[in-house]
Automatic annotation (TrEMBL):
Example GO biological process: negative regulation of DNA-templated transcription
GO MF annotations in UniProt: DNA binding; metal ion binding
Gene3D superfamilies on file: Metal-sensitive repressor, helix protomer
InterPro entries according to UniProt: Metal_Tscrpt_repr, Metal_Tscrpt_repr_sf
Protein name per the record: CopY family transcriptional regulator
The organism's place on the tree of life at top rank: Bacteria
Record family assignment: Belongs to the CsoR family.
Source species of the chain: Gordonia lacunae
Keyword terms of this UniProt record: Copper
């Protein structure tokens, strides 16, 4: 079992609040579709939800770089490179989404 704490642990409650708010936005979008809301109004809410998810993603990425990548780089060059590669793969996925 890995005893290493994740970089976001200090802001875990903040991330959980944000994700619960996003969950509420998703339910709101479902309700809008059920109620035959105007397309542009739904798209506006999708955009807001997308921005909220991006903010969470960027925050987690920043925490990962500042904590996990730095910690790994202090352990060894190989561990640091592996964490940087992992972060780059995550960044690539985020940019493509």
């Amino acid at each position: 079992m890995d005893e290493h704490q994740h970089g976001y642990i200090g802001r875990k409650d903040d991330y959980l609040r944000r994700l619960k708010r996003i969950e509420g936005q998703a339910r709101g979008l479902q309700r809008m579709v059920e109620e035959d809301t105007y397309c542009i109004d739904i798209l506006t809410q999708v955009s807001a939800m997308t921005k909220a998810l991006q903010a969470v993603s960027l925050g987690l990425l920043e925490e990962h770089m500042a904590h996990c990548v730095v910690h790994a780089a202090q352990e060894s060059d190989e561990a640091g490179k592996a964490k940087v590669d992992e972060a780059m793969a995550a960044i690539t996925r985020l940019v493509r989404s």
